[in-house]
Amino acid sequence: MRKLFSLTFLFLTISIYAQDPSWFYEMHDQYKETALYDRFFKYTEVEPLILDLQDHPDFEVSLEGQSVQGRNIYLLKWGHGPEVIYMWTQMHGDEPTATMAVADIWNFLSSEEQTGFKEELAEKVTLLFLPFLNPDGAEVFKRRNALDVDLNRDALRLQSPESRILKDIRDRYNPSFGFNLHDQSLYYGAGHTGVPVAIAFLAPAYNMEREVNEVRLNAMKLIAQLNEIVQEYVPGKVAKFNDAFEPRAFGDNMQRWGTSTVLIESGGLLDDPEKQYLRKLHFVMLMSAIVSIANGDYQHYSREAYEEIPANRISIFDLLIKNGVVSLPEGDFILDLGFRSTAVFSDGHQGQRQTGARLVDVGDLSTFGGYRVYDAEGYYIVHAAIWPEIFSTLESLLSSDWREKLKTGYGYFHLEEEIPSDVKAELPFLILQPGMERPSFPAIGYDAALFMQKDGEIRYVIANGAMHSIQQ
Ligand SMILES: [Zn+2]
């Protein structure tokens, strides 16, 4: 009977040599930490998740010190194997995706399920999690710490307590692999494809010559494997960060100090503003990486496969209007128009609010792309006029026949009432204060109300970074 039980148990247990990324992908929902549900969580939401693990037999939780403003910073340790893997998250306070993913990993590791897999893994690896490294920055959703120091430029001088903790743990454990986990600008594209980057990687250089030793090569090989995995879920949306050596950065120095370091940057995905899908991909990548290090799988990948990952290149707009004929007093010109949204951040979970858009580039943008791209070939693009009367309230404007006014070429309205910028940003036209002139167009840094016209008829209006049909 005992033998039968063991056999059954074997069949139910997935060996670290037999798992594949889809297994982690499928399981993620089950372990997703529900206390973290958007990008704006704070220390008071993260610390309880860490303290919950204090009594768990498989975790060691140690208080490593405090941030500048006195918030606790903890190290979580799991496993007892020879491969020491160090993961630090959110050294930039407004880059939270990986913190959510490691909380999900803790839920998986602390659960009662898949004990065979976990026991096998714990024999091979020791995991060190240093999560939420910049809690003071996260409190106000900013990159830098409370001294306004960029922790990722403090690896040598070590003036911030957060930086000293990060370095001290490395020196104490001498990890074989390190994961430097960030979020990057939403405006990186993959090479010259114009496709927004969802995930970017880097095996940072350890010297100005960007040489490759075994430490860096191992990071490259592991990234080649992670690229293959993540391409399954976000094909074409993966890139490689510039490897120029930054003497003050942690990733570069970790590599120099002998820890094979993998930088992972969460980018952007349309319809995933809170990065919950990217969080899931992070869970899949990090768990797959841990297993790969445990069983040596990454050694089957090549530096060449790493080098082939396209370059991460700032080349993305929120809205790109291509190939239209822009009709100006000076004449007609084929000009692509690239707009980016503007936003403000509020305290707490109110998060980010759109406040409009601005034109950031004009001309031949054929090597660029966007989250929303429209081909305006065959259309004239015309700067809208100002409606001659002043409206006292937004309500009176909205109850007027504004749609008819748009159809006859008016896209700016003077309004006496002051309304919040995020309310303005939702409108299919632009609001001006009484006495304000229409902004010039094209003008970098400014938004414009524009019409797309075909056969003498206005079909669309472009305002606040969005394109609206006005035919209904
Ligand atoms: Zn960062």
What report would you give on this structure?
The protein has 472 residues and is α/β, with parallel strands linked by helices. It has 14 helices and 23 strands. It has helices at residues 2-12, 21-31, 43-51, 97-110, 115-124, 135-139, 161-173, 214-231, 250-257, 276-295, 303-307, 394-398, 402-407, 421-424, and strands at 59-66, 72-78, 83-89, 125-130, 177-183, 188-190, 199-202, 238-240, 260-266, 312-314, 316-322, 325-328, 331-334, 336-345, 352-363, 369-375, 380-383, 385-391, 410-415, 430-432, 450-454, 457-463, 466-469. It is elongated, with a radius of gyration of 26 Å. The model is unreliable at 1-11 (pLDDT under 50). Residues 92, 95, 182 line the site of zinc ion.
Helix content: 25-40%
Indicate the structural class.
Answer: alpha/beta
* Mean pLDDT metric: 95
**Strand order in the largest sheet:** 1-2-4-3-5-9-7-8
Bound compounds, each kind once, are: zinc ion
CATH topology descriptor of the largest domain: Aminopeptidase
* Poorly predicted regions: 1-11
CA-based shape: elongated
Largest sheet: 8 strands, mixed
Name the CATH homologous superfamily of the largest domain.
Zn peptidases
Span between termini:
73 Å
Write down the Rg.
Answer: 26 Å
**Number of distinct helices:** 14
Number of domains: 2
Total beta strands:
23
CATH architecture tag of the largest domain = 3-Layer(aba) Sandwich
Strand content: 25-35%
Can you tell me the CATH class of the largest domain?
Alpha Beta
